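#random but structural
TW: two for the price of one
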Amino acid sequence: MKDKKQNGLTLKRELGLTTSTLLVAGLVIGSGIFKKIIPMSQTGLGEISILLAWAAAGLISLLGALSVGGLASLTEESGGTYEYFKLSYGKFFAFISGWSDFMIIGTGVNAALAFLFAQAVNSLIPLPNPLQSWEHISLLNFIYPFANSGIKIVGIGTIVILTGVNCIGARESGIVNNIITSAKILGILILITFGLTNAKPDVAVAVGTLNSISSPKGLQFLSNFLTAMLYALWAYDGWIYTANISGEIINPKRNVPMALAFGILIAMSLYLLLNYVYMHIIPLETLRSVTDNEIGALVIAEIILGQYGRTLLLILILVCVFGALNSNIISLPRKYYQMAHEGYFFSNAKKIHTRFRTPVVALIYSMIWSCILLFSGSFDMLTDMVVFTAFVFYGLLCLALIKLKRNGTIKVKVVGYPVAPILFLLFSIVLTVHTIWTEPKKSAFGLILILSSIPFYFFFKYLKENQTVS
């Protein structure tokens, strides 16, 4: 294996299990827990079905994490899924996965998180809308780049600032992540405790009436349940990016799988409790009447505590989303750094800062494209495309695990094998087909971004071959 050094510099391996677990929790716990209860309630499902959708999405994510944890035994390099795909399917498909991560999956998460962060800022301090006169301009009738321009400008500023922090060093950004993640877990626990013990009698839903709201039947119920799971899966998404920083995690073959499992279990427990609190406080009929542009958790906090409670929850949302965005910005560029070393990304992305030992150019590339995506769409459009495109590759990772276990490449014991990868693969197929059927425009746009990888692959391959010849 080539020693990937730049003037004797390598990435530092200094992140332990605790920091890695909190990084997973930080990547996962962000916007969805506060935002997605409204669209989930609008599916027509009852309270128990919505809680089951959250639980099912958590279990599916855990199955995926166990499968990716099995692949973590293949390498200790940074690059995560890019490395796994390369070892499983070859460089061509590895590039498709890495480029798709750059074009929509990873950077789309950055854009969506930054959008919600700025949306929460706007709820706290109303922002100007300088491009309001152009907000009617659209591309394909569902992309409105100039809508909510004030929110988008603040979101872009947030991405730029956090990218600067992450250029300083992995250890420093890890410490920031630990503090923020611990704070948001504590804040959510306080919110859960307060919601369960201080619900107003005139708005609280009694535990015994949880089955009182009728749900759709038959195939319509299944379709609506899958749609609700799509929303919930956004709230769980992001765990996979921990694998991108394997080159900076101590003993990654042990710590990456453990961090993935522990981090998702932490998030799952908090999500189930907090969503129960939401529906314990406000009937679903009321939640269904809230517009998509509002943050559902804020409506609930205002009912419980008035404007004071709304302000406190806004601060918690800001902390949670800021932490998730920071975690994502830490992990994503490590994949582009790895791709650049292989000759299949912009060559300067492999540069390491001489003082801070961070992939500073890869961080800047990620920052620029995230900002472009942020201007292109709304929160829900971005999250739906991210989940759809991500699960195309998640399913293929499970197939890779099955292939490598069968041919003896992976000899270590993989927890949950073969049940976990098979179930996750089947679910990925069902979710992909369902999303194409119900959201054809968003699916087509996501597929176009994935397919854009093909000409870029041959472009980078041409540059690499010419450099080798010269």
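TW: number two ↓
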Amino acid sequence: MRTQYKIVQQAFDDKPLLSVKQYKFLINPLTEQIPATSAELLRETTHWLIEVGDFDKANKIAGEEDKGAILVASTSLMTGLPFGMARWYPAGLDGQVSVNFEMEYTSGKLFLNGVNEADRVVIIDDMISTGGTMLAMIEAIQLAQAEIVDIVSVAEKVDYAGVQRVENETGYRVKTLVKISVAGERSQVVE
């Protein structure tokens, strides 16, 4: 790991946790902009995503808009690959794929645009907790008849076993950069 990647780990370590339902929400600069996301943090996170992901096998990137849009866009700029995006609201466009999702805080529908038949896609995510959003992303990309070549998430809340759930239910392995425990009063990077 490059020394610069320590800034990514530090963005998730010893951070405040907010209880929502029976889960803990992690307040951090990368996904919540508390404090504001620095250009250095975004740049180093993107470099690390590119280092870990199989982007040379892909012709497209996909992600979920809510918190992952900045990561998808920055990775697109650095790799030169176009991207598709899943949103929580419909655009009513031709070719839009719609799937149900359920995550630890909410449920609803994801609406995927920009992923087409025969695309080879790397999915990028900001954080995987229970795996519910990732399961919906995988389903949407499969419904679009695209191939998933890799899945990379910046962070993983290990206490909620979402990575294992995704692998058990889909066979896809999610690569994560930072593993975090949210079992205590504050977050703790565990690897």
